[in-house]
């Protein structure tokens, strides 16, 4: 079954058994995070105003990761969100004894700049990737429908 997030002009579908953390009290960016029931996989969207510089967002996000994980490896990556292209990076790092993969994708619309952050242990990332993409696509479709 799916749950629906519909708040502050954002709407998307997500698995009902995932935990939602809404940091809408912060000024910018507005961050909404979803976690699998066991906490091993996360998807997040960081919502910025449309005039935000995408390169600065990506650079600052990677700098934050680099501060925490000194063995960070980064490669350019693109993603297709149901016909909407994302541009960003794939980052790999170790946390405890686990190899973690994080995909950071930026998508710009007329109203917002979205940073989609999908993260899981590398060996299970591909299993969750369709769910990560489906959540992102549902958000972008709702944005298209509201314009």
Core attributes:
two-stranded antiparallel sheet; 147 residues; globular; 27% helix; seven-stranded antiparallel beta sheet
List the total number of helices: 2
* Beta-strand percent range: over 45%
| Average pLDDT rating | 93
Sequence of strands across the biggest β-sheet: 3-4-5-9-8-7-6
CATH class, named Alpha Beta
**How many domains, in number, for the residues?**
1
Largest sheet: 7 strands, antiparallel
Helix amount: 25-40%
CATH fold-type name: Protein Transport Mog1p, Chain A
State the distance separating the first and last CA atoms: 27 Å
> Which residues sit in consecutive blocks of at least 5 with pLDDT less than 50?
none
H and E order: EEEEEHEEEEH
Shape: globular
Any guess at the CATH architecture? Answer: 3-Layer(aba) Sandwich
Q: By helix and strand content, what is the structural category?
A: alpha+beta
CATH superfamily: Mog1/PsbP, alpha/beta/alpha sandwich
Report the C-alpha radius of gyration, rounded. 15 Å
Q: Count the strands?
A: 9
